[in-house]
TrEMBL record:
Gene3D superfamilies found in the cross-reference section: Neutral Protease Domain 2
UniProt xrefs under PANTHER family: LEUKOTRIENE A-4 HYDROLASE
Domain of life: Bacteria
Alphabetic keyword roster: Aminopeptidase, Hydrolase, Protease
Protein name (record): M1 family metallopeptidase
Domain spans labelled Peptidase M1 membrane alanine aminopeptidase: 347-540
GO molecular function: aminopeptidase activity
Amino acid sequence: MSPYHVKSIAIGALAVIMLILSIQSGFGTAWQSKYTYALAPTAQTKQAPSPSSAGPPSKAPSPDQTTQLQPLSKRIVEYHMSVSLREDGQHLDGEQSVTWTNPGKKEVSELYFHLYPNAFQSGKSTFMRESGGKLRQDRATPDSRSHIELLTLQTLEGESLLPRLQYTRPDDGNAHDYTLARLRLPEAVSPGKSVTLRMSFEVKLPEVFARMGYSGNFVMAGQWFPKIAVYETEGVRNRTTEGWNVHQYHGNSEFYSDFGVYSVRIRVPQSYAVAATGLQTKPAITQDGSKIFQFYAEDVHDFAWAASPDFIYEEVAYSDKGIPGVRIKLYVDPAHAELKERYIHAAKSALSNYAKWYGSYPYSTLSIVVPPKGASGAGGMEYPTLVTAFAADKDNPGYELERTIVHEIGHQYWYGMVASNEFEEAWLDEGFTSYAEDKVMEAAYGVTPNLRVESSYMTDPAPLKQTSWTYNSHSQYAENVYIRAKLVLLDMERQVGSKLMQRILRTYFQKYKFKHPSTADFQRTVELVTKTKWTEYFNQFVYGDGMADFSVEAITTRETSQDGKRLYESTVLIKRHGGGNRSIPIVMRFADGTEVTKEWRAEEAHIQYTELSSSPLEWVSIDPQHTNVLDNKLINNFMMAELETESRTRWSLAATKLLEGLLRSLGW
């Protein structure tokens, strides 16, 4: 998800921040295999029922063109679904046959289903209690109520299992939360064996909120179907025993699910076009005033779709190194029809760079949906092979248009293929994507981040590896899993160099794509590539809430003489308030214009320098070029020498508190 839904800062506050930072800055100047969707079933895959499928369609391969290829993932699940959008544009009627294969070494006697639309069933759900009916700048309306109801749940033999279904609340025990259900099976599933269930369900969509719903005649169907949870085997994400990884839908959390195959039939009113995960396998069929689309996707862990009668459609073929061939499909709201080339260029820039840096994009399609004005709750979101842009609210948006597309396509790697657990380790997706997004924006558009301001956003640092709902607020969650996580990766890059950092990330992607890695897996990759232990670093900045704040604590200057000459003895005290073991430049400027630079490794809590000079000391600045991106209190990096000690200290503390107060007014 994109982090760029941020409250506006008051002009006066922003002016103060930029003035302080600009003053300070002035003192420093003296895998790679080809892949296409196979339409024929693999050895693990049942033949999909023959339904139908977005317009305008890509030309589907004929049966003799399909090739049996090695699956990219273990394909734990297989969904065959049929869904209809009612004429009111607010309800879905769905049926699905889902097969789950036991990947472990033990019998499994129960399944868990995520029922995400129930998060908006009432104001008492866990999501609504935690979020207060707000996500980023999107607020729930009185019509943002939704539900998913299972109408039937049967075995292949027709036995009803609905009486066996129980709602469960493992995280908070909230009796009003219905987003997770447990099903006791009639027979346990042996290791390597499968169970297939059939079900029908109804979804009432909310007025668009928190990634899904309707807005006018636009529909965003995200997390819309009963979805099986992830059964983690021993060793996955450092588990010592296998078992289900299950959580409710929380105000801060996103999603975690297993890879598999999806064959989905979508029926909409005749005037609608449909964008969806995967490949459209045949031209749409018009029938009884409706239009029927058929999509198919392999080696993905979710399926989303959007529909509207107003989409303007554009499709281009694109290939590059690491991109054997992909069809970029743009479904743009008419208000942004003239901007379609910008959307396409951003997609190409993202795909090209990510493939070059990390590894091949293995899918044959990438769809981009631009929601209409008023549907911002559906914007800035990622799904396998499908992303959403910001809503078309502005006639001439700035680089936020490109940045959002670049960010969401980055999720195709860290969310889509690496598939981190966003319930428990969101930084592995959001932080990595934010880091990669900045790299593309600089490479393609020459846009660089203002790291001084971004590091100053860090007013409430917290450990990166923790469950999403244990952060104190959404603001603290966003600050850490987006900004601080990105800054940690950038700090690592500054220590090892950009080439080695790119090698670290490429190695991590190649080793763990389609495997659900953990923070510990990333640390092992860093240590493998750098041949260095990073335990202390990860303990401080990943498992801990450390920043790397340094301050000029005190300056004293006195006149003295030597051999009859008047001299000045200056003593400077520098303190470390956080992570150390990094080289920090300290610049001392004297009245005659000379400068002395010291390099401090910061292994101790403080250091004191004494300089004897013929000219009085004017000021001291720590790291004036801001090489230490994890320093979030830059205002204490500078001190004038001519102030009395008590006044200097008071000024520094007061200014620091002022800046912190201004930054705390930011919201996500």
